[in-house]
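2024-03-11 09:14:02 DEBUG pipeline.ingest accepted 1 chain
2024-03-11 09:14:02 DEBUG pipeline.ingest length=295
2024-03-11 09:14:03 DEBUG pipeline.predict start
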Amino acid sequence: MPKRKYKIAVVQLNLNDVAENNLKKCISWVKDAASKGAEIILLPELYSSHYFCQSEDVANFALAEPLYSTSFIAFSELAKQLGVVIIVPFFEKRMAGIYHNSAYIIDTDGTEAGLYRKMHIPDDPHFYEKFYFTPGDLGFQAIETKKGKIGTLICWDQWYPEAARITALKGAEVLFYPTAIGWHPKEKDQYGENQYGAWMNVMKGHAVANGVFVAAANRIGLEQYIDGTDGIQFWGASFIAGPQGEILAQASHDQEEILIAEVDLDLQENVRQNWPFFRDRRIDAFGDITKRAID
């Protein structure tokens, strides 16, 4: 029989350092999460560097790595050693001129269970991701691992119910969202509470609408590395929610932390039986969703 309960972990970190140090830090924190019983462990978006998308600078492409190189080798060995699944978000160099914001899903034996490339790419002040990342071409996926069937989406994907829905319809029990999101310091007092609240509420809505568990891992700290700018203050607040949007674990805005919660598939099934949103979907009437606008 498939396992009906397993523990997941979200790791919230300050990653404003060089790649070698960030790798060592993440390995240490993953080991700590595993020692606490975590079976699937999520790291924040673009774990290996500071959030370089605050500017458009071709020098930052040097931070990218080819598939199955440094990050994969290190975390593959670690996953096999610990017997856990690790979700590793990284800056992928696919070929000269084509780069992705990607995530490995590494299984308990160190093999690649799946690869996800971020589908929705933002372009906002100090979040200039379109300069760096080609939109993903692998689609939305539910990945079979030895611990559970999971889906990985990345940061800006958080705002799109279609991404969550398709991933859940493919059988994902948990939606994992590695994230790098924060406040512009000068805007925080006026807009900060609403921005953070919207971020959390939309993902809790995905949990409710799809009857899935949701886990989001954000980074923390002020990353101010460009002269003449205020940088980004990453707001942390990583969390794990259950299939009714209930908060199972919640991190602070400013501390490095590990969150652990249990995924209970019997609970998920019970919720879907009582709130049968999938049953009542009018798929015959949804054709217009594939249009850019309904004029």
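2024-03-11 09:14:41 DEBUG pipeline.report DSSP finds five helices and 15 strands in the chain.
2024-03-11 09:14:41 DEBUG pipeline.predict end
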